[in-house]
Amino acid sequence: MLAIRSIAAPARRQCLRANGVAMLSSLQTRTYAAGASTHEKVAKFHGKKGSDGLYTVSLIEGDGIGPEIAQSVKDIFKAANTPIKWEPVDVTPRLKDGKTVIPDETIESIERNKVALKGPLATPIGKGHVSLNLTLRRTFNLFANVRPCRSIAGFKTPYDGVDTVLIRENTEGEYSGIEHVVVDGVVQSIKLITREASERVCKYAFQYAEEIGKLKVRAVHKATIMKMSDGLFLSTAQRVAKDFPAVEFDAELIDNTCLKIVTDPTPYNDKVLVMPNLYGDILSDTCAGLIGGLGLTPSANIGDECSIFEAVHGSAPDIAGKGLANPTALLLSSIMMLRHMGLEEQAVRIEKAIFETLAEGKTLTGDLHGTAKTHEYAGAIISRL
Predict the structure, then answer these.
(1) Beta strands 272-275; 248-253: pairing state
(2) Angle CA 64–69–70, to nearest 5
(3) pTM, whole model, 2 decimals?
């Protein structure tokens, strides 16, 4: 790697001048509230029922198989008498002042409803607009990505009994988007870590651990090498831990975590893992592999004002419209959404029906070694309600 100090001074001054505005802008747009009360709940749901007794949820069906799996969710929620109505929104990107943005009416919908469910979105590789997923996270300051990884009864993998949770800081780190050409053939990418962002995601991790009864939080880092950036994240986690005396805290190097969790994931079942952005991106997909892949893995992007729950698998355009898609990841993400909204009773009923259908193994989609169509799988879940 090329250290900053190894770059010639004129080039270094040039690159810092060129990116000073971007770095300052990134810092100034943070809305994290440092020094919050120990007992203040982070990222609570602010939505209200309408006069019809229903919550309105913004629905981003997504690309490819998105509309099909979204329909399964809508059918199952209707059968379960869930007090939710859907408000479909469009996230087709637009260019505004040279930047990729989502439509104003979509932003207004999600800000109004405080919660959204999102299917898969396709992003061109190496060209076109930037990731819409990243745009959504930045637009709504969704600072924590929550990825539970739990073995599915009825779907055998090399690992049994996996049941861990990863919480990834979602807004900065290597994904801050601050990079530039220093000189021809030399590119520098700046890893941004702030105390405010680290504090907020760590507080959420401890709070989440208390809520789900996993009273151990482990910070995953590489502070042995990135002593200032990861060191700040780690020291912030250590400080936040003092505000949660009922929760045990320790830390582990990211490379050790990767080695140990694929050797034996069982010791991680009683823990919530919290980590900076890049590590969380890699490790959460690693853990998804332990339980059968992204098609079985739910995900939530949590913010102070609103949150978006999503399927993180691809849009699978090759099978779109054929009724072959597996809606499990989006369904389990919608269960996380219900719990976030305080609709525990409905969450338990639907989740139980999903897991019973998977365990029985008679009406599964092709990726789960079955022959059922998408609507047949959803129908089997509905029959258990």
Answers:
(1) unpaired
(2) 100
(3) 0.86
